[in-house]
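Hey there, shall we discuss this one?
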Amino acid sequence: MKRLFMVFSLILFMLIMIPKNTYAATNFSLKDGWYTNDSAISAGIYGEFAAGGIKWKYTDEENGIKEWQFSLTAKSDLNSIYITLVPNALEIQTVTAGNKFLKVSKSNTDILLTANNGAMKSGSTELLFTVVTKDTAKEGCNLSVSPKTTTCVTVEDSYLDKEGKLVDKAKYDEVCNGVTPSTPTDDPGQDVPNSPDTGSVIPYLAIGGGLVAIAGVYLYSRRSNKVYKI
């Protein structure tokens, strides 16, 4: 019995001492099947990812596939949110906007979101986006964010004004670059060609009338010659 107890103790000791690979960052704890961050993480000008605002879980642990969720508590009304995802030992596969947002950028690292149905209100907490990643290492796999400004910036083919609202290029140039919109010109199809010297259409009419008269004289002469020969 004593020997059996010693063998069992040895096995238990070995199990405790065997090193384990860990994929969670040190500031994450396992809650309800998700690894959830314990402390608030600043999102710069936008607010913060409060405790539980960033979390992940394996959807395919054998292949290292994780699903991440980033929820933000806004500190002011937000028309758009522009964030760079910074992977460490991860490959970003997809980024999907939350229900209250539209992903404008095509990139999966520089993420531009615009709020649907008006701005995201100050103090509200919303799911910004869901990210699917693949581990590229056995440890140290993490995904962090870096906020970027939305004041008068261009992202791919999108333009944001001073309030972070999506505008067209003409409005962007007006608001952000001080370019005065040009006045539309008249329809050139309605213009009558003018003489390069005088600006009058009379010379063109005279030339046209002369050509018609010459053609008439020529045809009349041909007809008269035929009658004479007969």
